[in-house]
Fold this sequence. Notes:
Chain A is an all-alpha fold. Chain B folds into 4 domains: 2-161, Beta-Lactamase (2-Layer Sandwich); 167-208; 239-357 and 498-539, Sandwich (Immunoglobulin-like); 361-491, Immunoglobulin-like (Sandwich). In chain B, strands 8, 9, 11, 13, 16, 18, 19, 20, 22 and 24 form a 10-stranded mixed β-sheet that branches. A 5-stranded antiparallel β-sheet of chain B has the order 2-1-5-4-3, with helices on both faces. The two termini of chain B are 50 Å apart.
Amino acid sequence: MVDSISRITSALDSARVLTLEAAAVVSSKLGETSYTNYSQGITPEQLRTLLNSRNSREIKDGMRRIVDIMSSSDEVIDIESYFADVVKNIISDDVKIKILVCIYLLRFAEKHPNLALLSINSLQKTLSDGDPDVRALSIKALSDIRIPSLYPIVLHTLKKSVTDSSAIVRNEVSFALLKLYVSKNEDMEDDIIQILQELLADADPMVISSAILVMKECFPNRHDWLHGHYRYYCKMITVLDPWAASYLIDLLLVYCKTYLPRPIVVDASETSDTQKSMELPERCNEIQFPVYDVINDVDLTLFLNSLEKLTSTSHPAIILAASNAFFQLATPMQFKKSRFPEVLIRVCALSSNVGVLNILYQSILLYSSVDSTLFLPYVKKFFILPSNDVAIACLKLKIISTLVNESNVRTIVEELKYYVSSAPHPDIAITAANALATCAELSSGWESNIMKWFIFHMENSKLSTTLLSSYINVIRVLAQENPKRHLAHIMKLSGILEHRNTLADSARAALVWLFGELASIERRICPDILRKLIPTFAFEGPETRSHILLLAAKLVSYSAVDFDGPSSESPSDLKNSRIYEMYKAVSYLAEFDEDFDIRDRARSLSSLFDSDKFEIAALLLQAPKPTPRMDTSYLPSDKNGISYQTNISSLEIDKAIQNYHRFIPWNNGIGSTDEDIRNPTTLKDYTRFKKSFSSETYMKNDPSRSASSIPDSPIVSQSSVTMPQQKKNYRLQSLDEFFMDVPSVTTRKSGRKIVIQESSDEGDSEDDSDDSDYSGDSEDEEGSDDSDDSNDSNDSNDSNDGESLENSDMTKGSYKGKDNNDMNNSTGTSGTSDNTVEETENIHSSIG
Amino acid sequence: MFISFYIADTKNALIFQYLLSSSSPLFSHLLTKIQNVCPELISEHHDEERDESIMGQDSLKYTSSIHSSLGKDLEVYKYHSVTNNINYFCLTSLSKGQASIEPLLFLENMDRILLEYFEKERLTVSKLINNHDRLSMIFYMCVDSGEPAVGRLHENMIKRMVPMRSDLSKIINSTAHSFQKAVRQPALQNQRLFEHSATKGSLLFEQGSGSSTNDAFENEVVPWRTGNLKYKDNEIYVDVLETMHLVYSQRQKKRRRSYRGKNETGAEIKMVCGSICGQINFRSHISENPTIELDLNLAGNYLGVPSLHESVETSSEPGKPVDKLRFIPPDGKFCLMEYNIDLDMLQARNAVYKSGSIGMVSVDFQDGLGSKHDEFEIIINISNSTKVTDIKDLRIDVEVTPEVMPRNNTTDERSNKNKNQEVDDPNPDFSEHKIKVLRNTHGRFENDVVPGKGTWIFQKDTAVGALPVLRGCVENVWNSAIYVKVKRVSVSYNYAGELASGIQVNAINITSGVRNLKSLKLFKGVKYTTASGDFVIRG
């Protein structure tokens, strides 16, 4: 007994060890890294075997290796040599293998057109698959193969698929159109336009999204196509894909400018009798009324209102597009009311993408430079945070300088001074110094305050050359505008020049130059400065020496004017004057300079003065120099007829962003027609077939969001052919009744339905011919193949979606809840063969 | 139009490339081109390296680290993902009149999609390399004909087309794991555990990514949620993260007059600007199509115009505070809401932050202490809280500068002497100096390579209610009277349990969309985290 127990125990023990090992092996096998190691060990021969295997697991391993090589810099195996081995796996039932083959095709099909055609047949077959995802994938793969002879087939496919019941397939059709258009085959353009217009008229947001993308890429100027969709799109804009929404806003903006009357701004400060009104000016800061009302077209209001619903989006592209729309279409008051300025601030605060921030801040700078009130409440949001990128910090400073006014100048100046004195990067300090100069323009009090501070700062801290020269620039601007007032500060500068021997050569040179320039305005102090400079001439740096020489020459030239002037004394008097003597001394020193440039300059100047050519000297030395432009010197109040573009260019905003915000002119030639061109067109709504428990409960809960409920809005329902009515009719009517109700369906539409039948035929006939190759893999497949004949309607039932008109006489209840495969299809039509089949067969035979 | 995508690490070694046609360049080719045309794009520290000669040319230079033109009609964009520490590159042909925001946004978007797809906090290089096939498929799904695949960029659609690493492996893994555990147990328990692991396996089966049948798409109620999901354990997790960006300044005049201790009232510290950035992340695994209502207690904060996930119903009145969110959540993790509390607005500050301190840590410092005026002291005040146990990763960066004694602080005689000195030698050479710690109560102090900078590093956890103090001086090697000035103190820390703004989640409820709502077992969890972003006190 004891013995048996111990035996059992030992058996259990060994079993335990075995299990432990097995578990360890299993878990290690499943690790990703170990798989990668295994995968990378596959030899070229093994790879070929794997790809040709019948086991889908092995094929998958092979494909993974192929894709792995494609997406790494690994060039051990030339994967292009496996083209045929890879492409034949397109028939695989495994979606993953299929996608991987498609990725391979996308990359290499162009290089091996003949071999790529191998895959066409099986791709076409899956175009009528039951799963919409598979259908969409087939369209995508087919259109990705860039072989010109294939384009007609793709186009034909698209014509059929554009009426597919599944939105995902119709969405894919748009992308295929884009690919066809890019191929630049002009014969197909008409067809592309026709299909695109059908997609634009779709009711599903997913399809509209992709159609808008195609329109933006291929036909950005055909805004007339939007007439019938304008109001529907305005309603739908919140449910569109964010990318598409931003494109749509751009398109609608141009549309509004072209087809809607220009808004009228009415002066609200006057009484109603004497009210003045004007058209919305090009730049929103040109409105002259302090208080005003705006009269918009109804459709413009609709657009702007729908934009306001987008404020809660997190997608910066939408926010940028919407801000631009308000910037161009509305008054600053409306812009503010839309809360987009606040939204821009929020995105800037939350985003960490430097590139995006850069664009957003540049846009803010542009808006703010046109109307500073937009961002005035958020001025502190533009204070620099330590983690800000240099570029961002500089943009923030430029924005601040557009926002300075009497009430906030104190805080701003204090903050800017801090940046100038302790910025981590010289660019920031320079921009901040320039911004300070803008603050100084506000009032003379601030001007002298800032000037004083700059000079104090220069005296007390060590500064790099670039910084110093930017300071001197600022000081020069400030001094040049009103030199009399700043005389005291300028005197201080001379003190710096006198005492700070350690100052860098270039900085001293700049100061000397500054006095030379000041000589034209205030000459009295200059000779004294020159006098003090002469004794130390030899110890100065080369730049300073050169500028001392210039200063001396300038002084001579200015005093020559005096001597030439009213008293008209002879030049000899001048030559005896103190100034000329000082010049002589400097030029004598300069003639022995070690720098040949200075020597040369001294001689040329001397020859001018010696031959009494003071006019020429005056021309050379007294040429008026423009006031250095501050980066931020653009002020919105500038009304000297300088065009907007040049003003903006001083802000150094990227070209792309400037172009994006470029003002689109209003179309003044809109004739008032009685006909409403924006009368909604019929929507092609396929969702009406959709009926599932969840969706119904959802729609009940939330009518605001479902696509089908949107056309209930007053504007769309004005039209005679509204969708919801159609929906009701459609469900209850029999097929015959439906056809009696002709006006609601265009004849073209029914024509298209015939195409669907053809598509099913085509798929079927191919299925029939190729069935034996692959359909044995799964029972289910076979089942569906058996019930064949009208697979297409079968497909649509799979997806609980009706597609062809024939289906409509079945009430929903009759097929809901039934299994896909045991559907009885009474509507099958035995089709006649059509062109595509012939074409594909041709290709088939050509491949051999 | 996109031509190709690349993912590279920060040393520009290729991790992954996705080329949209046979003519797209390989990464190695692109890299050579970039090195010739625009080396700033791939240099790691473009800011430091930039010399003064190219400064002030034009504004385009600022974008050179993220975008560059490689030739006619060819642009390259770079996005650096901070969370994953990898770079994304994409090559595009010139877009028509669009602001170039699109490629940058798209790369950012792809980064997020990958994170959400792999359900990770951060992606490692090896994870990406191991999943080349998946990455290729994701890119294949997200990019179509060189454009973003609009309408199909939802996470659930990507997951449907690119199924997660088959759930079977997870089951086997976990079963193998429980086998191991079971076998290690005493033999008697074997059987029971065997059963347990078996049930666990089947449970995992059910937990898989919902129904994978064809009608998943057609049952879809909203585009971001796959229809008819089934979970055995229903869970909702809400993570609220707030980051504070605060800049304070201490007024100079007052400080110099004040004596130690006076500053502790905090009266002299003035906020220059401040904001709190908040983010509500939502993670859920719930069966069917629930409508969830999240009730927030805003604690009097004004959130401005927060950004909401597309699933959230927007309120009809634009000005209304956003305190109730109703939405049908996507499966898995997503960012429900992001908000920005503007602390500069008077109304905001009066309402909530009367006490003056935001966050749990406040800092005071004094300089010019000691008999020689060369000492400084930093006092940290960590307030008490019942919800927070400790402050994590507290670090204080200090920057001090020695200055020549200011004139007004000295006698006339001294000042005259100083003035004379200034002519000859206005500043002694301060390029080399070190901070010396005289006394500190917590943590350790490290000097930076940059003179005058140092970091006071605390233990991983610091208990609330503590009052750490650091007193230090600058090693005086100049033998002249100097005054040590604290230029800047920046603080970084984080803690869990409470938000800086005081916002709280009142309730999370499923209001509809689930059958048997009553019997539904639901786990809900809320986590609050506060972190400091830019938190600086200027001297």
